[in-house]
Design a protein that fits this description.
Helix content is 37%, strand content 19%. By secondary structure, the protein is an alpha+beta fold. The two termini are 21 Å apart. The structure holds zinc ion (ZN).
Length: 118
């Protein structure tokens, strides 16, 4: 496990894969980056929502919440991410943190990537 700069980042990394706000590690070749990620629904809720709204939009009680003024289905973002260069809590440079613990970061990135595919 990567040694985080502060308890805040440590907790946010542990929240990866859950609904709410978390921080995820992402690696693309030599590029290592942390992202602040928001997931309004659990993965199970998002899967069920996708099936319900596509197959039975008129039977879904929550349907009206996700329609625009003309009654058309509006997209629901189930995953939002923004790259972060510094820890939002303590200000530590996260690129340097990732570089100083490459092996641990890469293991975390693999674990976080697996969570996205579930
Ligand atoms: Zn921090």
């Amino acid at each position: 496990m990567i040694t985080a700069c502060c308890v805040w980042l440590e907790r946010m990394l542990l929240n990866a894969g859950e609904s709410g706000i978390c921080v995820v590690a992402f690696r693309d070749g030599d590029a290592r980056q942390f992202f602040l990620q928001a997931r309004p629904l659990t993965r199970r809720q998002a899967r069920n929502w996708g099936v319900l709204i596509q197959s039975e939009p008129l039977k879904t009680a929550a349907g009206p919440l996700f329609r625009d003024e003309r009654g058309r289905l509006a997209p629901l973002h189930t995953l939002m991410r923004v790259p972060i260069e510094h820890c939002p809590h303590c200000g530590r440079n996260l690129e340097k943190l990732a570089r100083s613990q490459r092996e641990e970061f890469d293991q975390l990135a693999v674990a976080h990537a697996a969570l996205q595919e579930e």
